[in-house]
Structures are given as C-alpha cells and as structure tokens.
Amino acid sequence: MSTPLDAVPLPEQRNSGSxxxxxxxxxxxxxxxxxxxxxxxxxxxxxxxxxxxxxxxPRPFHLVVDLAGMTFCSxxxxxxxxxxxxxxxxxxxxxxxxxxxxHIDRVWAILWPRAEIPTRFPTIAAGMLHALARTVDRRDLxxxxxxxxxxxxxxxxxxxxx
Length: 162
Fold this sequence. Notes:
Elements: H1 11-14, E1 17-26, E2 29-40, H2 45-56, E3 62-73, H3 75-90, E4 94-98, H4 102-111, E5 119-121, H5 124-133, E6 135-136, E7 153-154
Parallel strand pairs: 2-3, 3-4, 4-5
Antiparallel strand pairs: 1-2, 6-7
Helix pairs in contact: 2-3
C-alpha cells in the first residue's frame, strides 16, 4: 500500500516551530513566559530569533523561556537561546530556561562554557518562582544611578532614606 504524496509532510511542516507568549504582572514588573513548541533548525531559526527579540523588546523584568514543547533544537538554535540570555543580561532583564529535555540540556553542557549557560529549572513552576524571587542590584539596571552605599535588594522594596 502506498502513501499519497500529499500526505507526506514537507520539511517546513515537520520542522515548523511556534511560540506562545504570556505576560504575567508581578510586584517587580512584567514577567514574560515564552513557550517554545516544535523543532528548530536552519529552516526556521528566524522564527526563534524573532520570538526572542519580540519577548525582550518591551524590556520585561524577567523572561522565562519554556522548552517543554521543544522536540529538537540545532546547535544554531542553542546559540540563539544563549544570545537571548546575553541580550537580557546586558539590559538588566532576568532570563531563565525551563523544562529543557535531557538531550537539549546535554548539548549546552558539551558545547558551551558553564558560565555562559543560562539559569535552568526542571519545570516552569520552578522557573516562575525564581523569577518572582529574583533580586536586582540597582546599579546593574541600565539607566539607573545607584545611591552611595546602595546594596542588592529585592526589586520593589524602597531603599531606606537617610
């Protein structure tokens, strides 16, 4: 029995990746959750790059990238996720990766120095708790001038007035 040609998925259908972005308001600011779904390789890396750029553009307090729905990620896709972490850090935005499969997590461990690998959590719930509990040194926020003697403190708390 043969399969009709139109029933065979084309590469762009098999490898199509998609995203669902959700914004959560916290006392610290906006937390964006970007759920990555599908396979990502050379065919659709632009989709992954655009989704990360769109999620970081409004400068949220934290970006949680949920990989539970990711079924494949090429090395270039990993590089984009790492570039997203660097961009977030350069702009004072928290960045967390959640629910990466063992295979996806292993590629990071093999190809990149440990210091470059983003903070990872096994579940989105753990990643969200991390984002909610995150503290920021106000001197690290772009455009912020720290008062003399300021220290790291939870975002949203006011520094004591002397």
